[in-house]
Amino acid sequence: MPLILWTVLALGLVFIAVQVAAYHSRSIAPPLVMAPGETFPTAPMQRLVRWSLVLGVPLMAAAGGVVAWFGPTVFYDDDDIRLLVTGLLIASLLVLAAPMLIAGVWAGRGDDKLDERDRAILTRAPAGQAAAMLVVLAVWMIALQEGFRGEPGIPRVFLNLIFWSCLLVSQGATNVGILIGYRRT
Q1: I need a surface site. Which of 151, 159, 177, 185 has the fewest CB within 10 A?
Q2: Tens-digit pLDDT profile for residues 97-132
Q3: 36 in a domain, yes or no?
């Protein structure tokens, strides 16, 4: 059986296991009870996450565009381009992580900006992180196996790109999980 088929099969099984674990983790926080027809106003956390995604995704896209424009090898070898891309990636990571950092500050101060609904949503939000990272790793693995078939190795630059993509997708998945949590309540 070809290596690519084994890879897809193994990743599929791991993906199913992660989905089962994420499904079972939803029962940790109690469900929110609302009266029929009642809607919640937009929460400060929800607005913060929206702005985080509106600002963070274009920064990630800009970094990816620079790497795609110059190519991975030039990105890795040219210090100016590498510093530009790294700066964009760090900026996008900070922007995407800001809602969770601010929520931690709010919770530590005992602000009334986080109610029990917000806390329940924040508890469930990371459930999709593992699945999102697995998808990213699967795409990288298949693309690199097919792109460098017959080559003795894969250039080191791709390790750097895999790291950053997993890190950013993980943080972005948490933010998307928060928005999904607000949509479901």
Answers
A1: 151
A2: 998 888 888 877 877 777 888 888 888 888 888 889
A3: no
